[in-house]
Every structure is written in C-alpha cells, then in structure tokens.
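Section: Multi-chain targets

For targets with more than one molecule, the full set of components is provided together so that the structure can be written out for the assembly as a whole rather than chain by chain. Components appear in the order listed by the source. The example entry contains two components.
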Amino acid sequence: MNIADLSRGELTNRLKGPGLRWRSGPFSIHLKNSINQFTDYLTLIYGGHPVIEEPWKDIADFHIQLTTNSNYRRFWRPQVFFQLDGVKHLAPFPRDHAPPMFEWGWNFSIAGRANHFLILHNAVIAKGDRAMLLPGIPGSGKSTLCAAMALKGWRLLSDEFALLQPESGLVFPTARPVALKNQSIEIIRDFSKDALLGPDFSKTRKGTVAHMRPPDASIKLMEQPARPTWVVSPSYQEGQSAILEQIPKEHAFLLVAANAFNYETLGDNAFKAVARVVRESTIFNFRYSNLEEAVATLEMMTQNDEAQQKP
Amino acid sequence: MAESKNSGEIFIDVWNEPSIFPTLSIDEQDLFLRIARKAGLLSRFCYILDAAQITETLTTKVQNHLQGARFVAQEDARMLRWEVNRIQRALIETELPLILLKGAAYLMSDLPMAQGRLVADVDILCNKADIAKVEELLSKNGWQGVELEPYDQRYYRDWMHEIPPMRHGERLTEVDVHHAILPKTGRLNPDSELLIRDIVPVKGENNIYTLSRVDMTLHGVVHLFYDSDFDKGLRGLTDMDGLFRHFGKSEIFWQQLIPRAVELNLVRPLYYALQTVADIVATPIPKWVQDEIKVHAPIRPIGWLMTILIQRMMIPNHPEERDFISWLAWFLLFIRSHWLRMPPGLLFKHLTNKWVRKWRFDVRNRRTV
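Its structure, encoded as tokens over all components, is:
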C-alpha cells in the first residue's frame, strides 16, 4: 500500500498518533506530524511511496517529528521545528514552510547518520543499472538537470545524495522529491507536462523552493542500486551551447572526493570507493544553457557509449 | 501480558549481557539503538557485539547503523592519535611530560573500553607552574585560545581547573589543558602534585604518560559525580564500569584504591561510584571493598536521596522524553554539582550571570527570527 492509498483520516490519525512509517530506497522513516498543511504535501509528493505495514520486521532508520510552538507563538507567527530522535535540530522555519523544513531536516539526518555509505553531494540518475553522477556546487543546475532527465525517462535516484556503498561500489537510490529553486521551477513546469510539482515556498534560505514528485517508475525501482558509469559535472552558463569535455582520470579524483560529506569518516574505505568510481566511469565537464539540448547531448553520449560497449 | 521494559532497563540488560540483544523485539532493539546513540555509546556497542560474535545475526538495518557508528569511532581514534602526536611534537623542546587524561589516555593505553569510544577533544594535565609554557608552545604551533567573553575568560582563569580550550587553526580540534582535576574553588581539592608524581609512561611512545591506573579511575569517578554533564551519565557510568572491570582484574588495584582515594580526598565520590556501578550495571567489586567503602558513606537520608537521584539521572526512561521526576533529579544534581564547585557567594554570582546572559541571548534571538 502506498501513502496515497491511505484515506485522509487514516493518514492524519497515524501522523498524529503512532506515526507514519514508509520506505524511501534503503531508508525507512518514522514520522510524527500534527501540521495539517504538511499532510497535504505528503499525499501529493510522497503519495507513491510504500507504507511499511510490518514495522516489527526491522527498525526505522529515522524517527522524525515535526512540531510547532506550544506557547503564545502558536497564534502569532507560528514556527515548525524539526526533531530527530526527540532532539531539535536546525533553526525553525515559519509553520507554513513545514515541507522545506522536513526535506532539509531529513537531508541533514541522512548526511549525519548514514555513515555506512560514502555520501557524495551529487544528483544521481540511471538508465537500467548504469548510473550517472552529477556533482556540482549549488547553482550549477544539477537538480534541474536531474529533474529534466527523470522526466525524459531516466531513473531518478536522488537530487542530493549519491549513496555509495563501499563494499560493492554501487550507488543506492533514495527516490525522494527533487528540490527545485527559483527560475528552475518554471523551467521544469514548461519542460514537461508530466512534471508534478508541489506548492511554491517563497523566501526560504534558498529563495523560492518547490518539490517535484519522483516518477512512479523510479519509486518502483528504488530498492535497486546502480553501478556508477558516468560522472558529469554540470555548469549552467547563460547562452552556452551544450559541450561535454572528458576529464583525464588523474584530474577527476578530487572532483568526486571533494563532494563527499563523510570522506574523512570512512578513511581508506572512502579513498577506495572514490578510486573505483573514477576507474570505472567516464568523467566529463558539462557546460550548457538550454535544457532540451543538454538532455539530448547526455542521451547521445550515453547511447554512443553503450553502442561501443557492445562487441 | 508481560509489562514492557523502558529503554533504560533495556539498555542496562544488554550492557550486562550483550548476547541477549538478538532476542529482543525489533521495537526494543530500536529503542536500545536510539538510547545508545544519544548517550554516544552506539559505536562502543559495535565492538561489544562484534566481540560476542552476534553482529551478523542482526537485521540489515541494525548492521548498517552499527557499521556507520563504527566508521565514526574509527575516525575519532585516528584523529585522537594524530592530535596526541601533534601535541607531543609541539612540546618537544621542553622537558615536560605529556600527561593524557580521559579518552586520550584510555586510547593510548589500549584499554578495551577505548574501542569504539567517541572523543571530542584531548585533555592533558600539567603543573600549574608550567601552564604558561604549555600555552605558549601550543600557540606557537597552531593552536589558539578559543575566543571568549571577558566573564568566561575570568571564569576559567580564576576559578577553574583548566584554561580556556585551545583550538587548532586548521584542524579545529581542541586541547583542554588542566592543572588539576577539580576546580580551584571546589570543596574537594586533590593535589595535582600527587597525581603527577605517579604518572605511568605509555608503552612504545616517547614522553607520553597517563595517570596511574588508580588515579585514572578516580579521575573518571570525579568526572562522573562532580560535573554537571549528566546527560552523558550513561556514558560516564559505562566508563566507570569499563575501568573497574579492566583494572579490577588485579587484586593490587583494589588494595590501592581506597587508601589512594583517602589520600586525594576523593572517598565520597568513590563511594557513590562503587555503589552506582554495583547497583546498576553489576560491575564485579570484591565484597571487602564494598564493606570498607561503607565507612565513607554520607549520612543515611543523603545517601538514599543520592541513590534515587543518580539512578534517575543515569537511566533514561525514554530516548525522547524526560518526565518530571527525571527533570527534578537533573535539577537537583545540577545544583549539587555547582554547590561542590564553588562557595555559595560565588555560586550565586556565577548562576545569576549565566541566567542573565541566557535571557539576553533568547531575547536577541527572538528579534531576529
């Protein structure tokens, strides 16, 4: 059963009572929430995610609670607080920004906790089990690009984290929504009529934010990891036609390693995992401005690559 | 239906008998992991469960959490060894011994309890007369005193047993330089000279020392019962258990313990520590030691009250909520720890200053939200 299959009453009862449990890729989350507007967001954006009906089979990775003020601020400019295991983290947002607070808080929780993975600050998409990692600084367009690729039939793994398992070298999906910022919101709305976007949240730390629901096909395959095959470092430059430049492997190591949240924590495991990505992938710098052209360029590159692989 | 256990009871049961962990329900395992993580003990448990050879029987998710915690602990240990090495280098031109306290001492002496034990900073001890020299050498080698408000500077310099933390400019790691193990203004004042006279070299290292095993244990005791850091109570408790279990294998340790506590004027905290570990985590303590320490018990009502407060404080009922009684216990112990730290007049001044500043900070914060 998926979140959207629960009646509104049932969903509210769970969120306000024992909490709602669902799966996102390798993670299970246990969420309590009493903010009604957030429940709307959950139904719309996480509607395709499977509810955990047998919580006695395994633990929850994250026990998260969204709470609001209990004093006079309940009525005057109310806030939303993010709690992990009962401890408040991060500065509160205004209460009507509960969804971005939740997404930011969950990102924070994954980045701090999921240390059995090497966590790279990358967007990840895949064709079958071949993954493309998109490292990039904020503003480079990695979220937009990964949303566009997902809308063109690529599998969305994550717009935020490449979860690299050190032992296997595979990258795991989270199949969570893509957070689009500012102009990207309109660009993605115009890009495809299939884009299912939640409401705009204006004046957040990163400007206006809206979330794109992951395609159902990506959610269906969220238990399946993929093999890093391409690393494409995007940089959006106005008026630039799409150009892919292959980077020599000896220069690529830092490109991958520098984006890790927990490189030092994993020590030599991190070194080996990054080395394997660099060894086994083709690595590019990618400059672009037009999204259609960018997607077509990446499609072509991967098709050529696949054609060459066949004997 | 059997009454379900609260998380504190589950924690203690598993600590005393790790092999029962796989027999707990998933809910109980989940509670256990959360309480352990909150106490900073999840990574300790990886090693304990590994040693009991049961890690592989656990669910994938539990194993993942343990693996993540193990990586974090390994990073801490690497960091700590490197920091000790850097401090050793910074002090190389002096004849001063580098005396490690707490976590750094446990790790460098390869105590079993150091496996998976998280550490945030390095604590070192030196003679009061050498403080200026140590501070100067650390400053010359990249550490800087953390910037503090004038009140806090004075708090450390005039009243405390350590100087303000020194932070390394690049690595951002901290060294706490102590000249005593308790505040100058405190009721108990063990003589650092006595501690330094008995230091023990760390095997295989040059000029690195720890306190003797009895003193190391007594320092742990002091830390647990004379600090206001009770939220880390479980951790302090497991540290005590680890020290008593490890050193306690030797009969000589027990023979030295009480006389040394008397000499250092630390019998009362030792009394509480022995009581607490024996009560809560079933640490094996020889009968004659238990009998002998009773001479140093406080008067009855105080003893009872302390037992109740300590138990409440050490064993959280739930990882997320603190009930009123636990809160009250925390409050009373907080007051007690400060009471022991400084005379009443000074205490009043200090707490007033802290509360006024907190209030000001809150008001300032609200304006900017």
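Chain A has two domains: 3-113, 118-309.
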